[in-house]
Amino acid sequence: MKPKLEDVAKLAQVSKTTVSRVLNNRGYISDETKDKVYQAMTTLNYQPNSAARQLYNQKTNIVGLLFPTVSNPFFGELVLELERKLYDMGYIVIIGNSMNDCEKETHYINQLLSNQLDGLIVGTHNIGVEQYNNRNLPIVAIDRVVNEDIPDIRSDNFEGGVLATQHLIEKGAKYIIHTNGPIDVNTTANLRQSGYEHTMSQHGFKPITYTIDFELSFEEKAKKFKQIFEEHPEVDGIFASNDTDAIQIYNIALSYDKRVPEDLKIIGYDGTDLMRHMHPDLTTIIQPIDSIAQQAVNALEQRINNEETEQHTILPVELWQGTTS
Ligand code: RIB
After folding, report:
1. 36, 150, 171, 200: which could join 12 in a potential S-S bond, CB 3.0 to 4.6 Å?
2. What does DSSP assign to residue 148?
3. Going by DSSP bridges, is the β-strand pair 312-315/208-211 parallel, antiparallel, or unpaired?
4. Tens-place pLDDT, residues 4-40
5. Which atom of ligand 1 is least distant from the CA of 157?
6. Which residues, 6+ apart, have CB-to-CB distance to 287 below 8 Å?
7. Would strands 318-320 and 284-286 be described as parallel, antiparallel, or unpaired?
C-alpha cells in the first residue's frame, strides 16, 4: 500500500503538520527534525509529489546542478550549457561541486524535497545517497545511472571506446593500455572500458585497464600514470578516459623519453571546446555536450510537469584527429 503522510509522521515521531511544513518549506523547522522526516520518507519510499505536497506547491524557478567539479573542462562546459538553456526557460540555477562529498549531495536533494528547488540535474560520483530512493522526483542524471526511476542522458560510451581503440590499432598500436575510473560507481563512462576490451579481444590483443579514480589529486594520478610506464615499458598506445588525464599522461610520457606519436600513441575522451582550442594536437573522442545539455533540460522539464520521460538517452560521439596518434 502507498505510504501516507501520517505514516511518515508516525515513523519520524513528529506531527502531520510538521511533515507538511517540511515538505512545503513553511515556518521554522530544526535541521534535526527535517533529517528525521527525510529519513522516514526515504525508508517508506514516500512520494513527495503526493496531494499533500501539491496543495501548497509553488514553483521556485530554481534548478540545482550537481557535478563532481566544474574545474574539469567537461563538467565546466556542461554546466555552462545547462545554465544557458535553463535560464532561457525561465530558471536560475545553483551549482554544487559534489566531489567526495555525499553529505552535500544529500543536502541538495533535501532542498528539492522541501520545495526549495524545482529540479536537480546530477552527474555525481558518490554512492550510498539514500535520498535518491524517493520516487518520481524531478531529477535527471547525466553520465550516471542512479536507479531505474531517474532518467539518464549520456553519449555512446561503448561506441566511443570502440572508436578510440580501433583508431589506435589502425595507427599501428598493439600494446594498448586504457585508464578509467571510478569503477565502484555506476557511471556510464565505465562502458568505454567495455568498448575497449571488446575491440582489443576482436583483434587478439590483451586488454589492460588501470583504474584511476577521477577524484584523485594530480599528484596521486601522476604516481599511477608513472606506474604504467614502469610496469609496461612496451606500451605503444594509451586510451585515457578523459582529456585531462590524457594530457597528463602525454607530459609524463615525454619524461620517459617516449616520442608521441612515434613510440606512443595517445587518445583522450571528451573533446571539449577548451581542449580542442588549447590542445588541438590531442586526438580525442568528442562528446556532444550541447545535445547532452539539451536532452537533460528537456527531460527535467518533463519530470517537473509529471510527464513520461525516456529512461536512457544515448547520443552519438565522434573522433577528433590530432597529432598524438
Ligand atoms: O572528464 C570528466 C569525465 O567524467 C567525462 O568523460 C565525463 O563523461 C565523466 O564521466
Report:
1. 36
2. T
3. unpaired
4. 888 888 999 998 888 888 877 777 888 888 888 888 8
5. 8
6. 74, 155, 160, 269, 270, 271, 315, 317
7. antiparallel
